[in-house]
Design brief:
Blueprint: E1 2-3, H1 5-13, H2 15-18, H3 23-26, H4 30-35, H5 55-66, E2 74-78, H6 82-93, E3 102-105, H7 110-119, E4 125-130, H8 137-149, E5 156-160, H9 165-172, E6 177-180, H10 194-202, H11 207-223, H12 229-242, E7 247-251, H13 257-271, E8 279-283, H14 286-291, E9 296-300, E10 313-315, H15 324-342, H16 350-353, H17 376-385, E11 389-395, H18 399-416, E12 420-424, H19 433-438, E13 444-450, H20 465-482, E14 486-490, H21 492-505
Helix pairs in contact: 1-12, 5-10, 6-10, 6-13, 11-15, 12-15, 13-15, 18-21
Length: 506
Amino acid sequence: MKYNKQAKNLIVKKVENSLTNKKSLLRKNFYEILSEQDQTNTKDLGWFDAPNNTKIVNEIEAFIIEKEIKKFSKIIFLGIGGATITAEILLNMLPKSNDKKYKIIDSIDIDELSAITKEIILEKTLFVVMSKSGSTIEVLSQFNFFWKHFPSGANYIAITEPESKLYEHATKNQFLKIFECPKNIGGRFASLSYLGIVPALLMDIDMDKVMHSTIKAKDAYSISFQDAPPSSLGKYIANAINEDFNNIIIIIPNNLLFFAKWIEQMIAESLGKNGIGITPVICCDINRAINLQTKSIIINYLEPIYETFDCPVLNIQLDNILDIGKQIYMWQVAIAYSGQLLGINAFDQPDVETVKIDPRTVTRIHSKQSDYTLNLEFIQDVINNGSCLHLLSFGKKSKKYQSLLNEQKRILESLLQMPVNIHYAPRYLHSVGQLHKGGNTGNHFIFIDNIKIDKVKIPNYHFSFSDIAAAQLRNDSEYLTKISKKVAITNIKDLKTTTEQCTQSF
């Protein structure tokens, strides 16, 4: 891990001054720190020893051989947010020739789901249904939809906690296999357990090598934690938050985009609470990062850079997919350590839970969008008081639509001279949503309603996929307004009109 002068200063010189009440933690081994966790947090610490549980690799490999999983020519992963993010990391790093064999569905778009059903030959398709809690409405809805079309337990695997709703479905319908998630490992910390290892082995990744390098790193951290990479990284982030930096810019190559999204969730959901936090901004373009560096720190995964930026820069390398386990573990330790230094529980997500959708409450009632008008006054307030603008999109996301939204983001970013983040529902509700509600950065949110109403009810439910999207938009916008965030609701056409007006007026 290499850093420029400003980053070194933030890590080494300021830590003793800015976190004086945590000096004891700064001198301790991470094992000691973990052992002193509040008892309320101990149920979430299973991730720490997860790399040592190599027997699950053998268990999954034996299952793949015994059930002749290689016979399936298509594997479809169903899930939302943290459940499927490791699979997406791995798939994005694999050669593009794998695109047709593996499909990850994190959508509740009826058209996209219906299109997939037309491509499937059941005898050749394996569904992997992934939800740690087993109660996530989007995942259960995905499962119910595909099960109606393909009701064959021999073509399904579940990865979930025992006794969950998904576990009940899997047992009742005689799934090929149920992998039981440990209850002492939270979803975003579960990449080195079943939620990550099952997809990896299904993608033919050499997990023996991945886990071996991870164990070596873990052992090294235990011997000399304060000199190890996660110690520097944890201090770097904790001090940036303590010193009131607004954003952490993650510069990343395209093939690591989903790894950056995983980092984004780790930072946002673990540290964005108790009125503190820092906003992750993912950049695949150094020039964009240069333009956004004010009040930011940087994590750089491209070629090492030192003098290009005036802000703190930490350079990290990830060259090989077999090093992904080591990288994931480094970040898990670093984020847990940051939480300790900041005095917050890095393992919960209290504000996410406040807006989770109960199936019994889903209705066709939309938000009263007239109460959330997007206008020039809203944009002026962003300019005067903002540090990051969030565009939150609900509904369909065709390539054409995403292109239009990206263009509006580019215009707004140039106009505002601050980061503009695009997040798509429902994924963001399970990743960065905690920061939006519990953190102190990014107080301006524009909801983009691209929901196309469909009347086809999800099997076993009284509502459609578009009803879920409308309920999520309503709940999230109303909750953010309730806690005094600045909220507007619009559509892509009116957003374009507003950006044009802003360009002429500011």
